[in-house]
Amino acid sequence: MQGVDLSYGTAADAFVNGQRLSGAEAGLPAAITKVAVPEAHRRLIVPWDPMLAAEDVRRGLTYYGSGKRLQAVAAKLLSGEPIKLFTLGGSVTKGQGASSTKAAYPYRLSEFINATFPHSGHTFVNKGVGATSSGIFTACVEKMVEPDADLVVIELTINEHPVEPFTGRQRQGYEQLIRKLLKLPGRPAVIQLHHYAWWRSEGDGVGEGLFYFPQAEEQLTVMSHYYDVPSISLRSAIWPLMQKKIAGFRADKIWNSGQTSMGGDPIPVAGPQEKPDFFYYDRSHPNDFGHQVIAELLGSVVAKAVDEEQLAGCQPAGWAEPRNNVELRELPPPMVPGNADAPTTLCAMQEEFEGVVVEQAGFKYKPERPQEETFVGQKWGWTAEKPGAWLILEFDSRPDANAPAQFGNWASVYLSYLKSYEGMGTAQVVCVSGCECDKTVLDGTWEQQATLMQIHQFKVTQHESCRIKVKVLKAPGAVKQAGHKVTLMAIMVSHYPLRLDTYDRTAEEFAAKLKGEDEDENPTPHYKTSTT
Fold first, then answer.
1. Does residue 400 share a domain with residue 296?
2. Nearest to residue 302, comparing CAs of 154, 109, 128, 34?
3. Within this chain, do residues 150 and 56 fall inside the same structural domain, yes or no?
4. Does 303 share its domain with 392?
5. Which one of 300, 318, 336 terminates a domain?
6. What is residue 38's predicted lDDT score, i.e. its pLDDT?
7. What's the pLDDT at 40?
8. Crossing angle, helix 105-116 and helix 288-310, to 10 degrees?
9. Which of 55, 181, 227, 373 is deepest in the core (most CB within 10 A)?
10. pLDDT tens, 337-368?
11. What is the C-alpha to C-alpha distance for residues 309 and 300, in angstroms, rounded to an integer?
């Protein structure tokens, strides 16, 4: 990796899996004075033995853009100032597959920055939450990312709908996430990180390693083009190495036993002596070496910005002067027509979500993964497993708690729930007092072999005490499963117009199936369900 130092450094102020690590406590020196950029060109050298060659890095950077915001980050580092880095994503960002927090890519990226630019004031915050798509982050990003953030990494591609159109709700939500981050007061640089899971990429007669699946990466990279946001592709960087079974990047075996392909075939397991040859811990997540590769890819982008910032006075090839038009600092209109910016007035998740439930029968607030070490990793939520169980959520659906409700105006509610391939059921969602809404049905079933938090979206009228009842139904979901489990994990409220008149065929068919239930469990003709 030419001119890039990703070497190990001392840990800086970090927030990993819900815990903040103080750089000062770690013994890092504080920068006493701001230092000028040295006359000699300052470069970053890989501090550990790198796995990637320069050619791999060049393949992995599928879009860089103008690099202006990244150069602002580089300028702070070069002048001796601390920066704030946030990583948002699913289980890969959380560190799944790595042997420890320090082996996961967010921590290793922090080591990279500290190796060349140590500062006790650096803040590295990991907001990775397993089994999440963009919906949670879109609604709650203002709570997760500090307003003066300098750099934000988004790793959500693997959990996004693989083939949804740009006008679909999930793509619209993802665009809103990018817009919210770019509009933060600190004007952070944003990097899209596209993870690739060899054993989950199947189709067109290929059981694993299909290069062009899922197609979400292509669509989200288009958003990089539109918003001038760098895009890193793990697939582009290392798929040729996987396909040729190059040591360190082989994907034909994994570390963890008991895993199956998407077609149900057992995945071979690497023996103890051959583990260093393979990239994945399981069928979805990288092992320690894989996390190192991701950190190297991300570090190379920062390194490129550092190089450019130090050559800012040069105009190679005689190009025109850099554009400093004030109007170019403003965000363009939404790429997806009609995808209006969405302010969020309520975001209750994790500990805060418990108190939103004011009454219940048959539900229990408990962790989905009790074996995890942190509260975030344990994925707490309200769960029921028998038809007839119910709970009531109470919240303020007004845009301003100090102003009266706006008659005739609606609020959009995002109810986060688990969706999985076994044991899941359905639930009716209805307003019972204060606000009004159409009855809707939440469906926790699907065919894909993954368990993810998804968003059930519906509209309510504005009221200071909006009460919603969620009741587990006897009716099966669109994919029949042996169970009725319903798990709710968060609620968000936003105020902006939404396209609620288009629903997928599966939802319509499911609605038809539910007709004929008893009155309490029969959705109205205005049936709507989440399109996740």
1. no
2. 109
3. yes
4. no
5. 318
6. 45
7. 61
8. 40
9. 181
10. 988 776 777 889 888 999 999 999 999 999 99
11. 14
Same domain, 279 and 395: no
Interatomic CA distance for residues 508 and 512, integer angstroms: 6
Residue with tokens 């290793």: 108
The enclosing domain of 473 has a CATH number of 2.60.120.260
Compute the distance between CA of residue 28 and CA of residue 21 in angstroms, rounded to an integer.
12
Q: Do residues 399 and 312 share a domain?
A: no
The answer to whether position 8 is within a domain reads no
Number of domains in the chain: 2
At residue 382, the 3 state secondary structure works out as: strand
DSSP 8-state assignment for residue 365: E
Rounded to the nearest 5 percent, the helix, strand and coil shares of the chain are 30, 25, 50
Report d(CA 9, CA 249) in Å as an integer: 25
Domain annotation covers residue 46 = yes
What pLDDT score does 455 carry?
Answer: 86
505: pLDDT strictly greater than 70: no
Query: Which residues, at least 6 apart from 294, have a Cβ–Cβ distance to it below 8 Å?
Result: 92, 105, 193, 195, 234, 286
The answer to whether residues 346 and 395 touch, using CB atoms and an 8 Å cutoff, is yes
Please state, in angstroms and rounded to a whole number, the distance separating the CA atoms of residues 332 and 120: 36
Provide CB contacts within 8 A for 303, sequence distance 6+: 1, 3, 4, 5, 43, 44
- Regarding whether 354 and 256 lie in a shared domain, the answer is no
Structural domain contains residue 335: no
- What order do you get walking across the sheet with 189-194 strand by strand? 19-21, 13-16, 123-128, 84-89, 151-155, 189-194, 231-233, 61-63
What integer best gives the mean pLDDT of the chain?
Answer: 84
Q: What is the mean pLDDT of residues 160-187?
A: 93
Top pLDDT among 507 and 355 is at 355
Residue environment code for 417-441, b if the CB has 16+ CB neighbours within 10 A, otherwise e? bbbbeeebbbbbbbbeebbebbbbb
Write out pLDDT tens, residues 55-81.
Answer: 999 999 999 999 999 999 999 999 999
Q: How far is CA 221 from CA 58, 64, 76, 168, 202, in A?
A: 16, 11, 27, 16, 21
What's the domain range around 86?
13-318
Cβ neighbours for 264, distance < 8 A, ≥ 6 positions apart: none
Q: What is the CATH number of the domain that holds 201?
A: 3.40.50.1110
Whether the predicted pLDDT of 480 surpasses 50: yes
Percent of the chain with pLDDT over 70: 83
Regarding whether 20 and 137 lie in a shared domain, the answer is yes
Residue that terminates a domain, selected from 277, 301, 318: 318
Same domain, 431 and 483: yes
